[in-house]
Amino acid sequence: MRNWIDLPPVWLALFLALTWAVGQVVPVRLFGGPGAFLGAALVAAGLFLMAWAAVVMMRARTTVIPHRNPSALVTGGPFRLSRNPIYLADATILAGAALWWDAAPALLLVPVFMSLISRRFIRAEEDRLARAFGPAWEAWALKTRRWI
């Protein structure tokens, strides 16, 4: 049971639920219509980025599933801008939801989510990439930021 719980989409769903709940419990309305528009745009951008990164990884025939060993070092497409475009997409979706739902205090959850994802997934993934691809990983990591 723990395996399906400890996956980034589950964490994103939990944080989205928490974002919605914060908006209901602490109804600080700051953004209105413009926030809903910007939020929807961010959610759409996040979904696009996530799909693009997944397609690039599948074309490289490597896993998109955390905790599995990669079979290729993917540095093209969205990976030119971020070492973790799918996690960046998750954070973008979360921020977009907070704006869309006009839940201003919930924006504080975005850096909390990013920190949790870094600790639970990114560090271990980077260790696996470093072991598997050595100098190629080092060169890419030096020129490409973790988030953006």
Tell me what you see in this structure:
The model has no long low-confidence stretch (mean pLDDT 94). Helices cover 68% and strands 0% of the residues. It has helices spanning 2-5, 8-25, 32-59, 85-100, 109-143. The protein has a domain at 30-120. It is elongated, with a radius of gyration of 16 Å. The chain starts with a helix and ends in a 5-residue tail after the last helix.
Task: Summarize it.
The chain has about 150 residues and is mainly α.
Q: Which residues sit in consecutive blocks of at least 5 with pLDDT less than 50?
A: none
Globular, elongated, flat, extended or rod-shaped: what is the shape?
elongated
Put simply, the count of helices is 5
Strand pairing plus helix content: what structural class?
mainly alpha
Terminal-residue CA separation: 33 Å
- Percent in helix: 55-70%
Number of strands: 0
How much of the sequence is in beta strands?
under 5%
Radius of gyration using CA atoms only: 16 Å
Give helix and strand order, one letter per element, not per position. HHHHH
Main attributes of the structure:
single chain; 148 residues; mainly alpha
What secondary-structure arrangement, pairings included, does this model have?
Blueprint: H1 2-5, H2 8-25, H3 32-59, H4 85-100, H5 109-143
Helix pairs in contact: 2-4, 2-5, 3-4, 4-5
